[in-house]
Structures
1.
Amino acid sequence: MEGFEINPIKKGAETPEVTEPKVQEPAGAQETNPISNIHGLSAEELNDVNKIRITISDTAAPVIVLFGPASCGKTMTMVRLSRYLQGQGYQLIPDRSFRPSYDQNYKNLCDNFSSIVNSDDAASRTDNISFMLVKVVKEGRTICQILEGPGELYFDPNKANQDWPTYVHYLLNNTSLRKVFLPFVEPNFGEEETRRNYVSTINQLKQNTDKQKYVFLYNKIDKTPFVISPGKVHLNHAKHQVEVDYPGIFARFKNLNPITSLWRPEDFDFVPFQTGTYTQPTSGSLVYIQGSDRYPQILWETLMHCIRG
């Protein structure tokens, strides 16, 4: 991955088709429940996050886990990568069994996934995506699965040690699944304490998933001074800036194998990314214009290397 160069960095809605059933919430839930804005949860799940149910029925295809805080760009990364893969002849097929049948929001997302992903107002229409599991299929064979879950469920910016719900532990501890984790980082993210807590969460992730693959995704690379041209970045400068902004974030990812560490000192990949640009017309939804194909191409090539390696 060091062959991808990028310049020094500066420091620093609606979804017509998707409707959601009303959930009877207890009085005061809106004020006290930090996940009350997550779409599709049943009343039982909303009242107790440990009741949240997911099912990954295909244990043969690797799972690409988008991992990061709320609003860090996971959904739009899925959109951008999906568009790129469709252009390369892949099919993107939502897994309808991932969430229980009572989750009508998820059913509607599955029904309308292609139109949502490919619409100009994708940035607004994806607001209803909380959970999503999408299969990447080529010539009838599932290459991998891309999973997104709400960041609020595993990262609290005010806590160094997170209490993850049962469904997260199910994912982390499911040894029958091969997983590639994509922790998201970005320039100018939060306050210093929030970044420290996020590093603690990443360390906790590594501790619970030691034998998995990791690809750090540096989103919003276009907001940094490390870009030479679209898709060409000063990668070492970018990675150093992440270490400055998130002290200790790579500390647990040292390659301890005395042989392979000679040419690969760190046990992770690092990929720059940009989803595109967003403009707000005087009337109407936010307009999304996708960025260079080079970014999703680099990401996909890196993921394929992780899966095949």
2.
Amino acid sequence: MRVWIAGLTFLGSAFAADTHAPQVTFNKDILPILQKNCQTCHRPGQIAPMSFLSYQSTRPWAKSMKTAVVTRKMPPWFADPQFGHFANDRSLQQSDIDTISKWADSGAPEGDAKDAPVAVTWPADGWGIQPDIVIEGPSFTVPAHPPGNVVEWMYITVPSGITKDTWITSMEIRPSQVDVTHHICVVFRPHTDDVKYNTPVWADRPRDEQGNAEASAAGVNGRGIPEDVRKGNGNEGCYVPGQAAQDYRIHNAAKMLRAGTDIVFQMHYTPNGKEVVDHPRIGLTVAKEEPQQRYVSFGISSPNDAKSFAIPPNDPNWESPPAIAEFTADVDLVYMSPHMHVRGKDMTYVLTYPDGETETVLSVPHYDFNWQLGYYPVKPIHIPKGTRLTVTAHYDNSANNKFNPDPNRTVYYGDMNWEEMMFPFFSVVVDKDVDPKKLMRVVRGLKADGA
């Protein structure tokens, strides 16, 4: 009997302690998590479909929030924590997940307004950066139902309006119609008298009725990049789902935008059955004084001819040929971003130093085409001259891949979502006086020039 009474007393004490536990409220407990991890996307003008700036806009989504964080669907983050630490890691700690779950389960109370942290001052008009200069891009009508549902990559040149040499410290590319925008990249190109502004240029590629390019058209030579664009300095920056802005200020670095430069927009749209007009813009911030370091962007590709890059039907784990580059000067690696299409499965960046030591600097074991994130190391990774970067990737062309439009066909390298790519981006910083053209050479694969 004494044992039973003791047990009853213990249970009663535990129950009493639970009933007096502090209530989890929006203002005190949830809003700080949202400010740190979610509001970058969940605010007006950004990619998320709902705003988490206020209790009123957040409360209807409480249960959905719980499900998303418990399953770690949100916030999107795909880097393997075993390799590297990243400054923009917004993944939630387990304690944050537990807090959101308790809040949703308890009726999502608002709490006392006095407990709320000071609101974050976000850039106006939905920008991720607050631009000093806004450059208007070309307008383009994306048709609802083009033949084969294909709008080939196109290139449209506009004047930058820059009248003096300008060091830019961040860049953001913003399409107005994100639902149909696969990507938009920009190239800075010296002005020539023969340029035709606001005139789309593209190359038709032979395709079947389903919009698939013929194998003979696979690879970079089939992309139809206009010759005048090839004379430019490569991609300076891109918009892809999941990222739009790159900020060089954290490294005291900048890019040079020369007076009179023209800007070539590389535009790729995926029609969704509704005709829309996209009007992208570029936002730039400008250095108040000359920077000490230059920010240089690169992209390299695996070999992409039809013989080298052909994913067999129903293959769940096809390994592409690697992309390999060698640094021909000392640099600091500050950014990495994998790019594949809907069959992309994983991508890994490995450095091999001159002494033979290897280091995995980024592993993305569960690539998601819908969230093509960039990864910023907490500390720049110093890379001495002679170091090689080897990037490998795998693809799931099986029926188990829910995004796979057709597991029963061979998939070649190509521009459209239902074709494939293996294109790792990365950026480095160097002394401002270093020639960006002399930083890297491709050992295997293909390169987009440094920018």
3.
Amino acid sequence: MPERDGYIAGVPCWVDTSQPDPDAASQFYGGLFGWEFEEAMPAGAPGRYVIARLRGGDVAAVSSPPEGAPAQAFWNTYIWVEDADEVVARAREAGGRILSEPFDVMDAGRMAVLADPEGAVFCIWQAREHKGARIVNEPGSLNFNVLNTRDPEAAKPFYGAVFGWTTLDFGSGQFWTLRAYGDYLEELTPGTRERTAEFGAAGFEDVVAAITQIPGDDPDTPAHWSVTFSTDDADATAARTTELGGAVLLAPVDAPYSRVTVLRDPQGATFSATAVVPENKDVGRRD
């Protein structure tokens, strides 16, 4: 798959994980996904930011916790925007909270940290030199970003106002969509819409993220964004996670078009890994 060189507004474009021990986290994810790492912060900087790469292309990053933040491990989702200040204003008007006002990240770009009305935290990224993930949808790279929420209907007006997202009920679940993204993919690779339809997934080319409803019998899980990485073998990835000191929270299960597992790294950050399984296309599908 060709490397990406940027995204369009409203599309998740980058992920990083905050870790109390970035070196230990790099060792874990390097062993799990084959990532190679390069320190991005200048010598003497107070924090760490280590870029992870596959085949020389950026896929994610590992950072130390921000100054004054709790020493917790978690994954962050970044959404591409053209004007971070303008998007922050829209988010505020739509009922979101601004956890960090827009600020410049050296020459890499400009970002802000936001929370939707239910409290799910995400970042926005106005790119300059750093164009987001260069490699996606390949084993060891980002595959999906997921909003975990108790009230999908309440989330829709917020994300619609901020990013212009609409939703698609695909029979097996709900997804965030952006028509412009499907058009963008069609322009990059003519025939994308036709091939997606032939695969039995018409409209899926517009999908930018997924929605998962937090069960009502799980009162302790807050609304949050989560990340999913591609793998060529979900079962092997789950087994390797435990070998490296992590934990399997959900053993590999069949899902629509895929086989997926939910994992936790040794410092406590959760993530998913999914393998494409075309013959599973009707698993869990509602008529």
4.
Amino acid sequence: MDNSAPKQPVEQDSSEKNSGPLIIFIVAFILVAIALWQFSGGKIEKRPMDSSELLKQKPEVKAIEEPVVQEDAVEMTAVESEVVQIEPSVEEDIVVEKPEVTLPALDESDVWLEAKLPELTWRNELLTLLINEDMIRRFVVFTDNFSQGLLAYEHSPFIKPKTKFSVDEQPLSGDELNVWQWDNTTSKRFDLYVDLLRSIDSTTLVSWYFEVKPLVDEAYSELGYEEDFTYTLQDAITRVLDMELPKSSMALTRTSVMYKFKEPQLEALADSDKLLLRIGKENLLVIKSVLLEINEKLSKEVSNKG
């Protein structure tokens, strides 16, 4: 006989019965807490960014950065343009500015001119060819006469050549009496004068001419003229430039003390033109070259001042 008591059905503890819903609630609470923590800036997992939001943010970045770059570029361009505009004006002012020159009175200008003449040439020893008395008036009167084809020897700016005029004493033709051949060596007495002209710096000469021009104008007005002397000077230069060298032998004749050109067309030339013939072909070509350069610079300066 089995004395063991009959088995009774095991009843679950009431605490165990109620723990199921509680666990579910706790798990749900934890999940909610985790979700809230993620959305509030948690670092465990970042919320994925939608592609539409990326497109919205890109224009905002460009809108902030691009104007800054463009503004800097505009400012730099403005600064550069200001420098380009300022620098030439400064250089131009430096070139234009010239020291003022105080001119002496016309009657007292010889000493002042003698001190300045060495600036014109590197052949200072040839300055002794100039007459140092009333130099500006001599220059004006001689140039005015020369431009008209006349020679005012008493107002010449230069001393007379030491060597006198000579001819080839052998007759050109035995059939003609009192006809002599032109002696080309006699033209060499003008070589030193031509060397002086050739040694002068044309730029300095033209600049110096306009510097003393008030005195030149005063001397020119003393002759009764009112126009600008520069045009008279250019007329004299043009006369030299237009002078044509004869193709003939320039034979000479003498019916009295003075020699004359045998050919009527040569003897009919103006006194200033016949002087150019006596200077000689080679010397005349040098004079033409120098005066052409001087005349061009005179014309340019007159144009700039006009």
